[in-house]
Amino acid sequence: MTKISIETKIKAIEEYCTTASSLLGIARKYGIAKLDFQICVGIYARFGKEKLLNPPTVTGDFRLNLVKWKQQNLASIPETCIHFGFRSSGSVYQWERQYNEHGAPALLKLRPGRKSKHDLKSRERDSTFKETESTSPKRELILKDSTRRLKKIGSLEKASKQELAQVIYDLKAKYRLKDLIEALPISMSTYQYWQAKFEHPDEAEEELKSVIKGLFEYFEGDYGVRRLSAQVRDYYRIISRPLPNHKRIYRLMREMGLKCTKYSKRRRKYDSSKGPLGKKAKNVIRRRFMSNRKYQKMVCDITELKAKDGSKVYLEIIKDLATNQILTWEIETHPTLEFSLKPLHKLIDLLPHTGYQLTLHTDQGWQYQHRAWRVLLKHGRIRQSMSHRATCLDNAACETVFSKLKAEIKPDTDYANQEDLIQAIKDWIDYYNHRRIQTKLGNLTPLQYEARLAA
Asked: Does residue 273 carry a pLDDT above 70?
């Protein structure tokens, strides 16, 4: 490749400044590499012609100051060359690489001029021989320190690149950067990327973290990634800001250790099948829980909760499958027949004239096989449907409400007596209908979805 004199480059720069030609066009005309010409134009604009004719003297301190300035300001190679009036972009790249691998002494001891191939091979041979003697114990120490810092993860293989970079960033004062990079499964470029993130955090991301944490605490840890993402995006929509991606929200929640764990615990279940047998109905719903008309399909069930003093509370609900709204409910201290009939009485009182068939689905509990239940259904012109024996999935649409209730309130044994537990259940039912969004309803509450359905 033909070497282009500095006089030719200055001539090309002056032509670029006085004509309307593009930078790339002038560079091609004179056969100058685009990056070199861009650097020369920047130096000419910043310092004038004299800096190109008289470049700075290269010393160990000059190299070290140049590399430190580049890394502290996160500058590119052309920006660094223009700032120091130095034309050789290749030298800047080599100096930074040596600084990252061997530290500041490598730049201070570096001599000007090119090394012969024989000298380079002999030096590499000597350095590898010395390192084989001392690297193994140092490597073991690095691995021990790293594993100690990653004890929550368990092993280096499971650690993410960010976590490895954080370990290197913390241990950099104790070990050489080169030894850390060689001992841990991470490349230098990946570490430099995360180092820049640690030293210059993104303000927008920090703000997003605070919003996520605030909303997670506001909903008392009840919302997982999907529902919390909807709330975060709604907040950013209100303040007219770009909406964050759900994958970004999930990543930040994982980094902050925010996770909804309330649904991972097993809880006691109430069995209402023990009792006097009556007449059983067919399974009309057959797990087809979808509906676009209110009151067309409804489900009903009873659950049991136990306070700290051993007293029990029984809750029965009737839920609409079109809006997922809890239509009527009743709480008592004993699961009597009168207790189970109260929500049905309330439902019949509020039912409007619909003009289509209404169906109420239950399990095979003794209350729902009783003659009084069947008579009341006939009075309200409601068709009866029952699950198969010992098949909870046939009434899963109602069971899921009880699962949410027991997960999102405190453990029932944390409530001192029946009164406290009953008040907590009432508050949660109000929260469920009015404020708790559901992804199946398009991130709306049951009452909001009902209003949209009626519109």
From this structure: no
Give the model's confidence band at 266: pLDDT under 50 very low, under 70 low, under 90 confident, else very high: low
Q: How far is CA 139 from CA 160, 413, 421, in A?
A: 20, 52, 58
pLDDT band at 6 (very low <50, low <70, confident <90, very high): confident
In contact, 74 and 42? CB cutoff 8 Å? no
Given a cut of 90, whether residue 372 has pLDDT beyond it is yes
Cα separation of 214 and 221, whole Å?
A: 10
Percent over 70 (pLDDT), the chain: 90
Identify the top-confidence range among 59-63, 197-201, 357-361.
357-361
